[in-house]
Design goal:
By secondary structure, the protein is α+β, with helices and mostly antiparallel strands. The chain has helices at about 20-30, 55, 65-80, 105-110, 185, 270-280; strands spanning about 5-10, 35, 50, 60-65, 85-90, 100, 115-120, 125-130, 130-140, 140-145, 155-160, 165-170, 170-175, 200-205, 215-220, 225, 235-240, 245, 250-255, 260-265. It is built from six helices and 20 strands. A six-stranded parallel β-sheet has the order 3-2-1-4-5-6, with helices on both faces. Its main location: cytoplasm.
Length: about 280
């Protein structure tokens, strides 16, 4: 049973915390204990409880912001196995499904137990340098190997399960989850994938060739990416557009499906294709 609900907010997306206060009041009215960070506690009304570590104390997370805020919250909630629900204050809103006008409706449904939790595939990305793992983290949307500003075209070599696939000249390669197929991968020409599917999408970024297209890999495959340039260019691994590592010549980037999924909460039973049309076409 849900009791403690962590409220995570992007202050730049909720100026004055009006929507956050509305959410906190709605949670309190329905018998939940709203947990907020100490720095925003003075702005969220009398019913919010300050918590030094929301993710340790909460049973459930609600974030107020855009898809970027949702991704940050979902990454933080991942190790605690907490479901995350998003209140959309961003421009796109593929991940944050609840609009601000529906906050009380969403909390009412939570109180009645009308919540579904969807498991979403996550990537496990690591960098091996001279045989040792120097970096490892997860990606909920995508892992991107790309050139550093002002460097020349990268030529990235891709192997899958130890077998050579191809070399891709261009600005880099995106490896996305189905959830991330509507993010950077989509803007690079990748396919749209239903989010509940279990696969990885490899999409070249600005490929300097006429035939490079996205590749689909099964979730049990292990992808290796290396630079074919013998140290002439600089590259970086970036996860979900946030955390990353500058790569050195000889580094091996290994990407596979993570052992556990991220948990996305829903109160509206939305049709993925309805969201897709609304966000991409505007209707």
């Amino acid at each position: 049973m849900l009791k403690n609900v962590g409220v995570v907010v992007n202050k730049d997306r909720d100026e004055g915390y009006a929507h956050t206060r509305n959410l906190v009041d709605a949670l309190y009215d329905k018998g939940f204990t709203p947990l907020v960070s100490p720095e925003i506690r003075p702005y969220t009304g009398p019913h919010a409880v300050a918590s030094e570590n929301i993710y340790e104390e909460a049973d459930f997370i609600i974030c107020v912001g855009g898809d970027g805020t949702f991704l940050s919250a979902a990454r933080a909630a991942y190790e605690y196995r907490l479901p995350v629900l998003g209140i959309n204050r961003g421009a796109v809103g593929f991940l944050a499904e609840v609009e601000t006008g529906d906050i009380r409706m969403a909390v009412d449904k939570m109180a009645r137990g009308e919540i579904t939790v969807q498991s979403r595939m996550v990537l496990d990305a690591s960098v091996l340098r001279e045989g040792k793992t120097v970096f490892r983290d997860i990606a909920i949307n995508d892992a991107v190997v790309s050139r550093v500003a002002f460097s020349r075209i990268l030529r990235l070599r891709v192997n899958m399960d130890g077998r050579y696939v191809d070399s891709f000249p261009g600005d880099g390669i995106i490896v996305s989850t189905p959830t991330g197929s509507t993010a950077y991968s989509l803007s690079a020409g990748g396919p749209i994938v239903q989010p509940e599917m279990r696969l990885m999408v490899l999409t070249p970024i600005c490929p300097h060739t006429l035939y490079s297209r996205s590749l689909i890999a099964a979730e049990d495959k292990v992808i290796h990416i290396t630079m074919d340039d013998a140290g002439e260019n600089q590259a970086m691994l970036t996860l979900d557009g946030r955390k990353g590592l500058e790569l050195k010549p000889g580094d091996l980037v290994e990407i596979r499906a993570a052992a556990q999924d991220a948990l996305f909460a829903s109160v509206s039973q939305v049709n993925f294709y309805d969201v897709l049309r609304a966000k991409i076409h505007g209707y």
